[in-house]
Amino acid sequence: GKLDLNTMLPIKDYEKTDSYGTLYLTKEKQLPVRILLEKMLKESDNTAFNVLFDNVNRDELERLLSYYNLKENIEYPFKRLEYESSTNLVTPIQMYNLFSSLYLSTVLYAQDSEYILSLLSKTDFDIKGLANLPDNVTVADKFGEYYLDDSKLFHDCGIIYIGQGRFFYCIMMKDIEVEDAKQYIGYLVNYIYNYVIDTRVKLSILRNET
């Protein structure tokens, strides 16, 4: 209740990073929460993440991470320890917990969950194009990549909306170059989508026969 989408947050020099996104180039001294959320979720902008992170209560964040069974380092923007210890890596089941919580609004009000999912359906990562999905299919997804030194990580997780149906996918890749990882993820999401569609057709035929 201390922040709303129109609250202006200052952008400090130490929060700016060129690791991903272009917000670090901004001349603005402050931006509203709404714009920062859009930059973070739609463009995976790490500067936006850092600004928002600095305005979150650490105790509340720890409780939230505990609820989702996430063990991320609370100093994330400044120490990348989660990549130094395999015990702290995020898993697909943890991402499922997070996405299902958004979808079912177990933490946020329904309109706020829907707002976040709507932003995730407009990300710069074109999973629909990579997976060759139909125009009438919506995907709310979040991708993440980390390529530094010997680490090569590329992940994409999300909810695919097909008519009244919904299903979750999460693909995490290690030691694969960026462009190859994107192509593999596209192939796998296409395979998953077609498997679901084919299975539904078979079940529909079975129901009609019985």
Explain how this protein is built.
- By secondary structure, this protein is an alpha+beta fold.
- The chain has 7 helices and 5 strands.
- It has helices at residues 33-43, 46-53, 58-67, 92-104, 110-120, 127-131, 178-209; strands at 8-10, 30-32, 138-148, 151-162, 165-174.
- It has a 3-stranded antiparallel β-sheet with strand order 3-4-5, with helices on both faces.
- A hairpin with a 2-residue loop joins β3 and β4 (151-162).
- α1 (33-43) crosses α2.
- The radius of gyration is 19 Å and the shape is globular.
- The protein starts with 7 loop residues before the first strand and ends with a helix.
- The model is unreliable at 79-86 (pLDDT under 50).
Percentage of residues in helical conformation: 40-55%
Q: Name the poorly predicted regions.
A: 79-86
Distance N terminus to C terminus?
Answer: 54 Å
In spatial order, strands of the major sheet run 3-4-5
Shape: globular
Major beta sheet summary: 3 strands, antiparallel
Element string (H = helix, E = strand) = EEHHHHHHEEEH
Number of helices: 7
Task: Provide the structure class.
Answer: alpha+beta
* Beta-strand content bin: 15-25%
**Any idea what the radius of gyration is?**
19 Å
List the SSEs and their pairings.
Elements: E1 8-10, E2 30-32, H1 33-43, H2 46-53, H3 58-67, H4 92-104, H5 110-120, H6 127-131, E3 138-148, E4 151-162, E5 165-174, H7 178-209
Antiparallel strand pairs: 1-2, 3-4, 4-5
Helix pairs in contact: 1-2
